[in-house]
Amino acid sequence: MPELTDIIIDKEIDARGSFCPGPLMELIRGMKALPVGGVLAVLSSDPGSAKDIPAWIQKARHEYLGTFPEQGYTRFIARKAH
Amino acid sequence: MTERMSIIVFSGTVDKLIAASILTTGGAAMGMEVEVFLTTWGLEAFRKDSYKTNMKVSSDFEEYAPIMMEQMMAKKVPSWMDNFTNAKEIGDVKIYACSMTMELFGMKLEDLEPIVEDVTGVAVFVERAKEGQITLFI
């Protein structure tokens, strides 16, 4: 897993305060809008995201770049693979 | 092989409609075909504009209805109708109305929210659900 400082984020979506499945929906929409190879970060305060978001990234066959905990929320990062 | 989730939505109370709508969203997000079959009170809840005023909660938890609605407003939880709409946007979701309920309640397709695709019977639902992996009754 790369360090957060090594990742260049193309777009960051703030989904904090949004409930399951809100942050995942934001991620899916954001991925659609992004060109292939683009890196998307989603901020979520929903505890469900910790399992849901990586599961979706794997299922959708994008590249999972990591989960980075912050104060009261988590930053999830993925690269659009196709 | 097609992955399919089939959901029978019988209940028309907000708590159960939220559950059904979130499961629909989850199925759609994970790439499954989702077929929602609306019957009885579940179909009544999809009458045009009805969701805007529906504040009903399962009768066994009725005392929680005001606090639940208040919390949902305060925390800006998306409505179950929003969830179904979002699910359709991201995935393959089809919502069907039960023909028998339509008859019983004297409904036409145009009386329902436009998110409802078509009217179908139980036999077609069963035929399609049996090819799927997940079937739920809510």
Spatial order of strands in the largest sheet of chain A: 1-2-4-3
Number of domains of chain B: 1
**Secondary structure: number of strands of chain B:** 5
Determine the most extensive contact between two protein chains: A-B, 14 and 14 residues
Helix and strand composition category of chain B: alpha/beta
Number of strands of chain A: 4
The largest beta-sheet of chain B arranges its strands as: 4-3-2-1-5
Number of H/I helices of chain B = 6
What gyration radius of chain B follows from the Cα positions, in whole Å?
15 Å
**Helical coverage of chain B, percent range:** 40-55%
Instruction: From the 3D structure, determine the CATH topology of chain A.
Output: Translation Initiation Factor IF3
pLDDT < 50 runs, ≥5 residues of chain B: none
Main β-sheet of chain B: number of strands, strand sense, barrel status? 5 strands, parallel
* Structure annotation, total helices of chain A: 2
CATH topology of chain B: Hypothetical Protein Ychn, Chain: A
Average pLDDT confidence of chain B is 95
Judging from the principal axes of the Cα atoms, what is the shape of chain B?
Answer: globular
SSE pattern of chain A, N- to C-terminal:
EHEHEE
